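hey so i finally got around to running the thing on that chain from the lab meeting. sorry it took forever, my laptop kept dying and i had to restart like 3 times. anyway pasting the input first so we r on the same page abt which one it is
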Amino acid sequence: MRYIIVIFLTITFINAAEFSHKPYDKTKSCKECHDMGEGKKFVHAPVRSGACTSCHSINKSKSRNLLRAVSVSKMCTLCHYKKANIIRADKHVHPPVKKDCTGCHDPHAGDFRFRLRADSKKDLCLTCHIEKKEYITSVKNQHGAIFAKDGGCISCHDPHGTGQPKMIKAKSIKDLCIKCHNKELKREEDGKKLLNVAKHLKDNPDWHGPIQWGDCALCHNPHGSNNHRMLKKPFPEKFYTSFDTKKYICFECHETEKFTKQYTTTATNFRNEDKNIHFVHVNREKGITCRACHDFHATKDYPHHIAQKTSFGISQLPLRYIETPTGGSCAPACHIRRGYDRKKAIKNLR
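ok and heres what got predicted. didnt touch it at all, straight out
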């Protein structure tokens, strides 16, 4: 019996010595059956270091794929704790973040940064947001931010979540817009210059209502539009247009009575006693557009968002507006100075 024990211990010692320099390789066992993303550009750190059991149980688990947590998102946020803060604290969270991180990320390896399942700028987003894919590629006026080399959906949206609706990356839509519109931009399709909105708003403190509310998207569609300047409804591009209250975007907010009543003492203050001067200007087949007299972003010197100059062809003509307690007057190049008074009508020369 003594000899048997000695032989057993000797064999055990020899086996231990033989295999002591070859520790058990867990990843080698995993690789025998599972695709570990060989040849992929970006490999998840636990996979790269062979720590598969950091996420998976070898024997059994109540969770899918033998995970050590009750769900994929719970598993991921054990390490990615900052993302856990988003789920807990942010008011607006991307649904896939709550449900399953692997909808966007490959947990093992991938060819795109962060092991995303497609390009992060927009291709990945459009695999789910199919309606947006069709829309942004078919509209006449596309938003340059979406298609720019360094742009894409993530220029404006955080793919995990924020405290703002639509998961935008700013406190308001206006603040988001002027992150890019704070310099002179040019449209790629025709080279036309776009307004430096940030500077314009800084120089002109009397802001149009939507800008006061921080909502540029009230008028503009940030994903693109078939209308001028990506507006949600048509807006005249030229000085003259036919009058139509059902067609143009201004009438989404401004009461149509200001423009449809030829005579009134209540619908508008822009009247010569009871003669509606808005009606005189716009309500005809070749009517003068709103843009001829008003700046729809912001103004400084004149009330009612009246612009300093009007564009007529390539010319910039000063309006030279003067306000009075009960009316006002203007003297653009298209006519001599003419006035209006709500109390007592002014007789203007033709």
